[in-house]
Structure formats: C-alpha cells, structure tokens
Design brief:
Blueprint (H helix, E strand, L loop, with lengths): L1 H24 L10 E22 L12 H12 L1 E20 L2 E23 L7 E25 L2 E22 L8 E23 L4 E23 L3 H4 L2 E23 L1
Antiparallel strand pairs: 1-2, 1-8, 2-3, 3-4, 4-5, 5-6, 6-7, 7-8
Length: about 270
C-alpha cells in the first residue's frame, strides 16, 4: 500500500505541475507543430541487472543451542547469496501525452504502459565454513512483466520537424521475489531447509531522452532511451532447522534476501497527435 500511495503522490504532482505549465503556455502565441494531445505505440528491447544479497538471522536469540553448525551456516550464507544476474528481452506498449510549445521549446507530460520481460536469478552451492563436510545452497530470483512510467518531457525543436528531448519521472512495477536455503545437515539429508516468496509493488524513478521526427501534421516517429531504477526488492524464508531435534530442538530462522533492480529500455515509437 505504501508503494501505491507513493506512486499516486508522484504521479499526481507531475500531472498537476505539468498541467499548470501547459495552461500558462497555452496563451504564449501561435500553436506550434508539436503542441497538443497524442497517443501512440512503442516497441523495443530491455536489459538490466539484479544484484542479490542474503543473510540468515535467528529471531529467537537461542541459536547457539539449536543449530550445531551455527558458525558455518551464518558465515556461509552471505557469500553464497551474493551475486548478480542480467536480464534482457522484448518490451512494448502504448503511450499518451500532452505537449505545449513556446518558440523552439517543447514541454509536456507522457505516461506509458509496457510489457516487460524482466527475470534474473542467482544460485550457488558451497561447503559450510567450519562444517563437517556439509554443503549448502542458496537460490534467489526476481521477475516482473509490466512497467508503468509517468514522466515530464522537455525538449528543443532543433528544426521545425525534429525534436530532441529529455524526460524524467516515476516508474512502477510488480515484482515476484523468491529465495530458498538447503543444506545436508548432520546425520540427515536436507536437515536444514526453507523457501519463501512474495509479490512486491515497487515505486522507482526513470530518466532518459530521445529524438522525435514529425513526418506529417499528425504523425511522428521517435527513438527513446530510458534508465529505470527500482532500488531494492526483498523477501524472507523461514528456514526449518532439524539438526538432531532430540538434543538441539526445533527452531525457525529467517533467510532474508534482497535484489537491487535496474533496467534499461531502448525503443522506437509511433505517435498520432490530435
């Protein structure tokens, strides 16, 4: 709910600010070739990175009496859970916008909804430090399949029909994040194991720029680049410890995993101006 609220505030602020600027600029003089409402479609390629990090914690503060291999587990997990993975794929969608023009200066607001093929994962297996030959595996993943941006645009008409512009604003997407831990324990297979996942609606920011060419009074083509940063998305798994429960008992520990997600979009678009 916090992400939705933050997105509403940013989107509303951008919309109100741009509307005020457009209203003031509407009387600046003769209507320019770029001025007015438009709708369009876009398609392109996305590429990005997810940087993963994991840590095991013991909420009950009694770990030393419940996990025989405590030093090995807690020192090994951060090393196994740290890593990066790249994601790339197709992106495409629709956009709507509004421009005003004062001389060669063009300014406005644009919102778009795009499909996004974002998926990254990291898995590593290694020997437990200070263990008795046991191995442990930490696996994490993050994915998203759509993206919304609401952005202000500011540009210069370098010729009457060619517009160079910069753009910046808010971005939002819904991420599926998952993590798991397993090791072969002492005296029993998979004596320590756990997995968790969650959906995380995340607000981020985007900056970029592009070139747009008015091929006629109503139609234009554009090429555009956007950088999108969502910060950190995270999830927690309950790790069920069953190391000789007759002596050590049974406790649930938490595997906390996060991923810092950034992505880049390179796309072309077609707009129709009313």
């Amino acid at each position: 709910m916090r992400s939705i609220s933050k997105f509403s505030v940013v989107a509303g602020t951008l919309a109100l600010a741009t509307s005020a600027v457009l209203a003031n600029g509407a009387h600046a003089g003769e209507k320019g070739i770029w001025e007015g409402y438009y709708i369009g479609v876009n398609a392109g390629y996305s590429w990005g990175t997810a940087d993963f990090a994991s840590a095991l914690t013991c909420p009950d503060n009694n770990c030393a009496f419940n996990i025989a291999e405590l030093p090995g587990v807690f020192s090994t997990v951060p090393a196994l859970g740290a890593g990066s993975d790249e994601s790339n794929g197709f992106t495409g969608g629709v956009q709507v916008g509004l421009n005003a023009q004062s001389g060669t200066v063009v300014y406005g607001v644009e919102a778009d909804f795009n499909g996004l093929d974002l998926g990254a994962s990291h898995t590593d297996t290694g020997l437990l430090v200070m263990g008795l030959g046991q191995t442990a595996t930490v696996a994490s993943s993050v994915s998203a399949d759509w993206l919304i941006t609401v952005r202000a645009r500011l540009g210069i008409a370098v010729t009457p029909t060619v517009l160079a512009y910069a753009t910046a604003g808010a971005a939002v997407s819904d991420f599926d994040v998952a993590t798991s831990y397993i090791d072969d324990g002492v005296g029993a297979p998979a004596a320590v194991a756990g997995a968790g996942s969650r959906s995380d609606l995340k607000l981020g920011y985007t900056v970029g720029g592009g070139i747009e060419w008015a091929v006629s009074k109503n139609w234009s083509l554009k090429g555009e680049y956007l950088y999108v940063d969502f910060g950190s998305v995270s999830t927690t798994a309950q790790v069920n410890v069953q190391q000789n429960p007759a002596f050590f008992g049974l406790t649930d520990n938490q595997l906390n995993t996060s991923a810092d997600v950034t992505t880049h979009l390179g796309r072309v678009g077609l707009n129709y101006k009313f």
